[in-house]
Write a sequence for this structure.
């Protein structure tokens, strides 16, 4: 059921160099995991209130959600293999 799919939200900003790199990494991973989860991106300049609600202090920040709740998160630039391992572990817990 689509409503129960886990999803990842990448919180970043268009002006952030590391955010552009992380966008590319997440996009490449989304091809591998698109059947298991959904992927979204939120820009700091457009959604500042959400950033403050989640307590985000470093960009990029990646939040993994399941059933509408944040299960885990990481901040900063992460290599593709490490991100894929983190997501596979979280999906495996599903």
């Amino acid at each position: 059921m689509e409503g129960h799919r886990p999803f990842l939200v990448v919180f970043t900003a268009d002006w952030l160099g590391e955010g552009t790199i992380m966008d590319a990494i997440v996009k490449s991973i989304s091809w591998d995991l698109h059947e298991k989860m959904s992927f979204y991106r939120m820009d700091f300049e457009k959604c500042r209130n959400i950033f403050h609600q989640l307590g985000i202090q470093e960009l990029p920040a990646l939040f993994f959600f399941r059933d509408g709740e944040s299960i885990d998160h990481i901040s900063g630039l992460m290599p593709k293999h490490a991100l894929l391992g983190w997501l596979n572990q979280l999906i495996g817990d599903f």
